[in-house]
Write a structure and sequence with these properties.
Layout: H1 2-26, H2 29-33, E1 36-41, E2 46-50, E3 54-58, E4 61-65, E5 67-72, E6 78-82, E7 88-91, E8 102-105, E9 111-120, E10 125-130, E11 151-157, E12 163-175, E13 185-188, E14 200-202, E15 208-216, E16 219-224, H3 225-236, E17 244-245, E18 248-252, H4 255-261, E19 270-275, H5 280-284, E20 291-295, H6 303-311, E21 318-325, E22 328-335, E23 337-338, H7 347-355, E24 357-362, E25 365-371, E26 396-398
Antiparallel strand pairs: 1-6, 1-8, 2-5, 3-4, 5-26, 6-7, 7-10, 8-9, 9-10, 11-12, 11-14, 12-13, 13-16, 14-15, 15-16, 17-23, 18-19, 20-21, 21-22, 24-25
Length: about 425
């Protein structure tokens, strides 16, 4: 009996030691220190730069217009990381909109000039090379092996702050959102702070399983590194990046479907929430409120499965979409087309889907006719029956209101238009 107790205590001690070693190995921050950097603009000027498009009612009707925000670019920092010993690195695309002269600065103040290799604006990814690079590089993991509840951590440079170390878990797989073209993003409880949108996300073995993206609906998103690698390889080889699409924005049944299309929120149906103008789906005759029954004779239960099926098809292929419209089943033949770099919904659909605000045009003017329950619009100070003039934050200025001296910035607007 005594020997059993001794063995039991021995095994407990060994377990504690091993656990300590695993904990120590989990987060080797020095790995990140050697390969993660912040981009620095080579300027000290203050500029007015175009922000995202905002919804405004103006002379041309209800539409989106660009607005300008005054910022000092030297205060805007972005995170990048080196993944190749020769100096190839990943950074966000956004800083390349304004300047083509950047430099990388590491935690120890060592700096390297950056050469731009290529960029893919729709996913805010750029491939660059650090000249005369002498530090270490990071190792990629196989992101297909990531599972829910896996522990992760990240290191980057938050805007307005110094180094930021964050940790969390993978909450779920297969996340897809309107702004995300790839339907297998990871959701995480780890916060994604401004400035770390392309920071590496590590697993327990200090390998990169993805890159930080954005906070969406109070959780963080991580783009799997396997998807990032495909983009980087094409940029490295100067290949065109294109994805097939059919121009439908689909959702799972929710309060919107119940309110507008008589599809119960708990039905589990996948329905068409919006159809992009002049898209393949629009040309084929797909309508808002159509319930998707199958695609190419395959019936899926999750929204991301339909999206994944579509983007796996070659451009120009005909797909068969079977839908239920009211009480009638219909079948449509749709040809996939290259997805445009810049897409936008009809402004009325944008407000309804993302803000829960139904707007209709009355006597040529947009008026709020309905606010969905528990929506961001309902929880604000907006009221039904009110006319919309514009929606802008305090720091933004509509282009039409600029003084003549500021017109010199107009030639930059066409390079940066995007949705809210």
């Amino acid at each position: 009996m005594k020997s059993c107790k001794v063995l039991f205590i021995f095994f407990i001690l060994i377990s504690i030691l091993l656990a300590g070693e695993r904990a120590e190995a989990k987060r080797d921050v020095t790995v990140a220190y050697e390969a993660v950097f912040k981009t620095k603009y080579l300027t000290e000027s203050t500029y007015l730069y175009p922000s995202k498009l905002k919804l405004v009612y103006g002379y041309s009707g209800f539409n989106f217009i660009p607005v300008l925000v005054e910022k000092k670019f030297e205060e805007r920092e972005y995170t990048g990381f080196v993944f190749d010993s020769s100096g190839y690195a990943i950074i966000p695309y956004e800083p390349l909109r304004y300047f083509d002269k950047l430099e990388a600065e590491f935690y120890d103040k060592v700096k390297f000039p950056i050469t731009i290799i290529g960029a893919y604006p729709p996913q805010d990814i750029a491939l660059v090379k650090l000249e005369n690079y002498t530090k270490k590089s990071l190792t990629f993991a196989d992101s297909d092996k990531v599972e829910p509840l896996d522990e992760i951590w990240s290191y980057g440079f938050q805007r307005g702050a110094s180094k930021v170390l964050a940790s969390g878990i993978i909450s779920s797989l297969h996340f897809a959102d309107f702004y995300i073209e790839y339907p297998d993003f990871f959701k995480t409880d780890m916060s994604i702070n401004p400035g770390v949108e392309a920071a590496p996300v590590f697993n327990d073995d200090n390998e990169v399983i993805g890159i930080c993206r954005w906070n969406v609906q109070n959780f963080g998103t991580v783009e799997p590194i396997n998807h990032v690698k495909k983009i980087i390889e094409k940029l490295k080889n100067n290949e065109k990046i294109s994805h097939p699409w059919i121009g439908l924005y689909i959702k799972g049944s929710d309060k919107l479907s119940e309110s507008e299309y008589d599809i119960p929120s708990n039905s589990g149906d996948i329905y068409v929430a919006a159809v992009f103008d002049n898209s393949p789906g629009s040309k084929a005759g797909i309508e808002k409120g159509d319930i998707i029954l199958s695609i190419d004779n395959q019936a899926f239960t999750e929204r991301y499965q339909y999206i994944k099926h579509i983007i796996s098809q070659p451009i120009g292929r005909e797909i068969t979409l079977k839908v239920k419209r009211k009480d009638t089943e219909k079948e449509f033949k749709i040809l996939t087309e290259p997805k445009p770099e810049k897409i936008r919904l009809n402004p009325y659909d944008e407000l309804l889907i993302f803000f829960g605000m139904k707007v209709e045009c009355e006597k040529g003017k947009p008026v709020i006719v309905k606010l969905l329950e528990d929506s961001s619009a309902k929880n604000s100070n907006l009221k039904e029956g009110k006319q919309i003039k514009y929606i802008l934050s305090k720091e933004e200025t509509p282009v039409q209101m600029l003084d003549e001296k500021d017109k010199k910035f107009d030639n930059r607007l066409n390079l940066t238009l995007s949705l809210i």
